[in-house]
Amino acid sequence: MERIEEYLETILDIQKEGRVAKTKEIADRLKIKPSSVTEMLNKLSEMGYVDYQPYKGATLTKKGYAVAERIKRNYLILTKFFKEFLKIENDEKVHELSCTLEHIVDEEVVEKICVLISGRCDVCESCDKEFVTLDDAEDGKYEVVVAPIHLEKIGISPGKEIEVKEGKIVFGDETLEVKSKKLILLRSL
To answer: Does residue 126 form part of some domain?
Structure first.
């Protein structure tokens, strides 16, 4: 499936540039022979992912577009995560990791990564997630989505509800005054 997704993603990139995906251009981008591309385009057409006409090129069907968009989104989210959250500076390494994982990561993992990078992310056109860091949290109830691991020992962990009152965290019968503001909170609806 990974190879199919690479083709669909390449066709999507070409289409977003305003062109029909021609065999030669796909071959050049994927660094393979045009005859291999022709063979794959016929398979993709049979599978319902592309509309393909020899010598004219290929365009994505709705089914193909959905797969290509998901893979492209996964890639962009993973890239943002590796670069801006994990601070991996080697662009080639970031590209390799993102390219490999974009095909195998499931939606649950992607959503959890989105939670981690939400304050720094511009991947999705619209995001319905509202996340704030502790230093921006006003009084109210929140769900913890990211917390340093040592806070789990005292009961503050992802999924737990806490309350912020006058700059202090209240959870259960405990109150915690926070000097290091590294918790990320999700406003309860």
So the answer is: no
Measured CA angle at 70 (ends 103, 62), to 5 deg: 120
**DSSP single-letter state for residue 32:** S
Q: Residues 155-188: pLDDT tens digits?
A: 777 777 778 877 777 777 777 665 554 455 555 4
Percent of the chain at pLDDT exceeding 90? 45
Share of the chain residues as helix, strand and coil, in percent rounded to the nearest 5: 50, 20, 30
Residue 86 belongs to domain spanning: 66-120
Task: Map tokens 């095909």 to a residue.
Answer: 103
What is the rounded CA–CA span in Å between residue 99 and residue 77?
11
CATH assignment of the domain containing 112:
1.10.60
